[in-house]
Amino acid sequence: MSGPPKIRVVLAAGGTGGHVFPAEALAAEMLRRGVHLMLFTDRRGGAYGGVLGEVEMRFVRCGGLAGRNIVARLRGGAELALGFFQARSLLKQTAPSAVVGFGGYPSVPTVLAAAMTGYPTLIHEQNAILGRANRLLAARVAKVATVFDQVGGLPAGGAGKVLRTGMPVRPAFSAMRGQAYSLVDGNGPLRLLILGGSQGARVFSDVIPAAVERLAKELRDRLVISQQCRPEDLDRVRAAYERMGATAELNSFFDDVPERLAAAHLVIARSGASTVGELTTVGRPALLVPYPHAIDDHQTANARALDAAGAAWLVPQGTFDADTLAGRLESLLADPAALKTAADKAHAAGAADAAERLADAVLALAEPNGANDNSQKGRQAA
Questions:
Q1: What global pTM score does this model have?
Q2: Which domains does the chain have, with CATH numbers?
Q3: Backbone angles phi, psi at 81, to 5 degrees
Q4: What is the pLDDT of residue 61?
Q5: How far apart, in whole angstroms, are the C-alpha atoms of residue 266 and residue 287?
Q6: Cα 340 to Cα 334: distance, rounded to the nearest angstrom
Q7: Half-sphere exposure of 210 (CA within 13 A, CB side)
Q8: Does residue 372 surpass a pLDDT of 50?
């Protein structure tokens, strides 16, 4: 006698790490619970490694609509339409128990096709304001999972669909959540971590070395700097730090960011979804400089939410100059209590069990009569 049919869940994701990383974290949790997964993505998804690289994939066409000329928008709309029919056919073949979208245009055809053909659907929004793809979908899906308590851009009457699950992050960051914040010693090293997105931010390379040079020598000599830079900026930034005798390690990519984040006394970073999720999971204070050209200025919304919670300090890029930054660094690094308070509040803003909570929500859609039992079993096995 065969057992009950296996739950089948489709993940729809693609684009930036802010969309892909939470999909990867959910995939790991769902696989641990014995769920059969499929990933619907665009052709770029064929390059995924890790957990997503092991998941059965289906490719659908997609196109973007934002910030483009009329010809490109029409072409993008045509691609989305083709992707919709592709996704609808693939969904009919695979008959999933639920479909989960993570934002970005690669998720739109699949989630839209699923919602319009009656499959249970959920979207996860990583930012403090709905992205354009999720805004297209929010009125049609059953649930909207969020990272923040307050999320802008919801459709009229959409508040009843919202459940806060938090930001699922990669296991390497979750493993650092238990690492206590290292209090600043009166004479000890001050560990400064600078992250600028996937390849560093040019403005950080321009401003931060100049700000460090303006610090009193006694403070500058205590700094231990880890800074991510664009490859073309590495030589000039390294030369600047060497000229002033500062201790700095530079790279265009650090493969041990979780460990560096756990060791940091203060972080300077953009405020994209992945960075905010990692900061709040580990619990570290930060100066957040939102990328000013992000669509719908969602990075400012993210930074503002953490600033309001006392977990970080919002610094608009228009005010991010060497003199101002030097003053902020001097005041913050001389106030260990303020740093510790912000670290604690960042930690409190994170959700240690975000992947588990999101998995519970998906199972509640996929198996409404038995999800609670399955959720409890999944948590007990953790």
A1: 0.88
A2: 8-167+352-381 (3.40.50.2000), 174-349 (3.40.50.2000)
A3: -65, -45
A4: 81
A5: 8
A6: 12
A7: 11
A8: no
